[in-house]
Write the structure tokens for this entry.
Amino acid sequence: LKSMQIFQVNINLKNGGDSELKSKHFARALTIIYALQSSLDFEKGEGIATNLFELYEFARLQLIADLSKGEASGTPKAIHALTEIRDAWEAIGPQVKK
């Protein structure tokens, strides 16, 4: 999420975006998304794993589309969706430990 946010802030070079930060965090965000997708266990996770894969794929496609347009129109939507998932995991984490 942090790399996606930094990418989003720096995507528009005409409005003060930093090309180096944009590129670095675009690549980092895609790498993290790939790692998340690769770590899913479709045998054990079934529907949840499939849904998470699709969400990660949505985020990946939004980043790529925004990079090609030079403006962040889909990245904020992807950040919002991933933030909701992260917050849900954080909320159930303490319950799982009990």
Observations:
- Helices lie at 2-10, 19-38, 42-69, 75-97.
